[in-house]
Amino acid sequence: MRLVTTDAIVLRSYNLAESDRIVVCLTRTSGLVRAVAKGARRMKSRFGAALEPFTLIRLSFHERENRDLVTVSGAEILKSYFKLAGSFESAEILAYMGELVTEFAPPHETDERLFRMLTACVEALEYQTANQPTLTRYFEIWLLRLAGLFPDFRTCAECGTTIPATASAAVDVELRPFCSACAPVNASVLSPQAIRIIRATHQLSPAKFIAEHVLSDNESEEIGVLTHRLITRAIDRRPRTLVASR
Ligand SMILES: [Zn+2]
After folding, report:
1. d(CA 150, CA 28)
2. Ligand 1 centroid to residue 171 C-alpha, Å
3. Looking at residue 244, what is its pLDDT?
4. What is the DSSP string of 108-122?
5. Interval between CA 177 and ligand 1 midpoint (Å)
């Protein structure tokens, strides 16, 4: 058995047997981890509130070869997001982010960029709870981008020419981007404004992005149609926690 200690963010937790809990965490150094916390449901559990969803913790666990489920040996709170947990809208977005990260993160495989992106989004959400649809689009674009599944709207997939930052881009049914000259007849078109917003997500941290951009309903919907198609294609289903109004 190997003892691993790493920063982790709790994505969800559920009961197991009489007194235990299973926690699903995204860790900084071990990717997605499912762990048993023994005795976590007892009144005087040594884990306290550390295993509540979206708590940032220093997690220690014992890893066994060929075992998917590890055993929690320690969990120390680094940061709690009390404000978020108390808001219904924030709780919805966190559940959505948790579901998608669980689907996208490779188990037991380090993906520090994904860990940093998720924790930065949660942090941004706490400081600016009002701008949630904008943050949701940012999160979706980056989740897809880190998985190598987000189209590069800077380059035409057909002729390789650079698509100007001020122009619209066409996407075919496969969601490949095209310049105006190469666009297939039945392509859908992303407005120059949507392209500009997408490019801004690539360059800014989530906190900076939502401070500088408040997406209108139309902008959010236009980008959402694209990200939801890409996500549904990647996981082969619609996310359970995707709320229609988002
Ligand atoms: Zn082209």
Report:
1. 23
2. 11
3. 61
4. T---HHHHHHHHHHH
5. 9
226 CA to centre of ligand 1 in angstroms: 20
3-class SS of residue 235: helix
Residue 243: per-residue pLDDT:
76
159 CA → ligand 1 middle, Å = 4
Packing angle of the helix pair 132-146, 192-203 (nearest 10 deg): 70
Per-residue pLDDT tens for 141-160? Answer: 999 999 999 999 999 999 99
pLDDT tens for residues 97-132? 999 999 999 777 889 999 999 999 999 998 877 788
pTM for this entry: 0.92
Say how many C-beta atoms besides its own lie within 10 A of residue 50's C-beta. 24
- Ligand 1 centroid – CA 155 distance (Å): 8
How far, in Å, is the centroid of ligand 1 from the Cα of 176? 11
The rounded Å distance from CA 194 to ligand 1 centre is: 19
The candidate with the shortest Cα–Cα distance to 6, out of 50, 77, 57, 48, is 57
CA of 202 to the centre of ligand 1 (A): 22
Q: How far apart are CA 77 and CA 200, in angstroms?
A: 33
Token reading at 38: 């023994």
